[in-house]
Structure formats: C-alpha cells, structure tokens
Amino acid sequence: MKLVVGLGNPGKKYEDTRHNMGFMVVDAFTTMARIDVDKELFSGLIGRGKVFDEDVIFLKPTTFMNLSGDSVQQVVHYFKIPTEDIIVIYDDMAIPPGEIRLRLGGSSGGHKGIQDIMQKLGTQDIKRIRVGIGEPDEDPINYVLNKPYGDDKIAIEGAIERAAQALKEALRSSWNKAMSLYNVKSTPSA
Question: What is the distance of C-alpha 94 from the center of its chain?
C-alpha cells in the first residue's frame, strides 16, 4: 500500500492559492484515476483506490499546513505504511513557476508542512514532488496565501499537470524512473 499526500490549507479562502499546490496535484491525479478524495478521516480528506494494481491512499490533510504531520502520522500508523511508500507533494519557492522537482530525502528547505511531517515520522527520507511557485517580491506569507495570476498562473497550471504525470510514472514504474523523466528544467519558448 502506498500513501500520496498533497499539502495545502483547507477551506474556500485558500482554494487555488500557491500554498495549495499539493491539493491541486492530488485533485488532478485522482480526477484522471477516478478516485474520490472526500471521506473525512484522520484529520484530512482521504480517498483510496487501485492504481496500476497497487492499493493507494490519497490524503489531503485538513489540519492547516504547519500541522500536516498530525494527519500523515495517523494514516501511517493506522495502515502501517513504511516511509519508502510515502510520496508528499507541495509548493516550493526555491523552484521557478512551472517547474517541478522530485527528490528523495533531505531538509525541509524551510517548508513548514514537510518539516512537520518529517518531525512526526522521525525521518527526512521521504519522497517528494515539489511544485515551483517562484521567489516572492513581497512578504512570503502573503505570497503563498495568494493566487497566482498572468504568466505565473499559466506556468503553475502546467507544473500541476506535469507533477500529476510524474506521480503516475512513479506509481507505474519506479521513483528513479520518474525522477529521470521529470527532473528536467523547462526551456523558455521562443
């Protein structure tokens, strides 16, 4: 059994904001896979289905970003999911809008959601799909809690789709194959 966690903040106020990239990637993937993520359990919204003959749980914690580890920890303990079978998807300001990065392990890079998950699970060895939202010209908190617009919005929508495809590849073949295919920088169009 695998666990895919999309990070974000619950509620209408935060829909489509930069900090909700994880929610949006999970929504994009589960729409393709026809899996509903709508059961309120484990301090989150949860859905379960078969993906390439693998039992996969999809989780969108409703604890707010900084306490995401509470929800993840509940699911991991209940279903006895090993760390190597967890994939966490979230926004990253260090990556330009429109780009994604797949990574296994390492620091939180200052992201409070993944930091809380690592702290609650007691490990940094977690697979991650990071969706680039770019560096802010304003207060970082305002930036992540606002919706992208213009070229950033178009680039980020593309990144959400690529992240969903990268997740599909990771579930179909392997994490390493997904990294080799999707850890490429986008090239500007002429």
Answer: 15
Q: Report yes or no: 160 and 24 within 8 Å, Cβ to Cβ.
A: yes
Q: How far, in Å, CA of 141 to CA of 188, rounded?
A: 28
Q: Which helix (H) or strand (E) holds 58?
A: strand 54-61
Q: What is the pLDDT of residue 189?
A: 47
CB proximity list for 58: less than 8 A, separation 6 or greater: 4, 6, 26, 29, 30, 35, 37, 46, 47, 48, 49
Give the H/E segment covering residue 61: strand 54-61
pTM above 0.90, yes or no: yes
Angle, helix 175-182 to helix 150-172, in steps of 10 degrees: 150
Q: Residue 114 pLDDT > 60, yes or no?
A: yes
| CA-based nearest residue to 65, from 21, 119, 8 | 8
Catalytic annotation present for 19: yes
Which of 3, 5, 14, 19 is catalytic? The answer is: 19
With contact defined as beta carbons under 8 Å apart, do 129 and 167 qualify? yes
